[in-house]
Amino acid sequence: MAWIGNVLFHSAKFAALPPGCPPPKQHLLDEHDPNALLSTNELASLTGFRPKTIRRWVSRRLLNYIRVGNRLRFRLASVELFLAQREVRK
Predict the structure, then answer these.
(1) Are 72 and 66 contacting, i.e. CB atoms less than 8 angstroms apart?
(2) From CA 9, how far away is CA 42, in angstroms rounded?
(3) Which residues sit opposite 9 in a β-bridge?
(4) According to the CATH classification, is domain 26-90 in 1.10.287?
(5) How far apart are CA 62 and CA 85, in angstroms?
(6) CB neighbours (10 Å) of residue 54?
(7) Which end of the chain is more exposed for a tag (fewer CB within 10 A), N or C?
(8) Tell me: the pLDDT tens digits for 26-51?
(9) For the whole prediction, is pTM greater than 0.85?
């Protein structure tokens, strides 16, 4: 997710802000408790990735997770670290 001008680019989707509205100062993920446990669908809605992509990362052991019964939970801090390690800088 990145701001370019007043347009938020989020996983090939974008939403323009109304004219004169400054971009938010905090990243979307910064507003949540880093130790909160998120479900696959909650994580997908926060990051913009499809739930299937998140499950694929789990099956390939790329993304850390916590199993609660037969459900997957993700710590927000771990997800941010996972995404930061894959960020490409020029």
Answers:
(1) yes
(2) 19
(3) 2, 14
(4) no
(5) 11
(6) 23
(7) C
(8) 444 556 677 789 999 999 999 899 99
(9) no
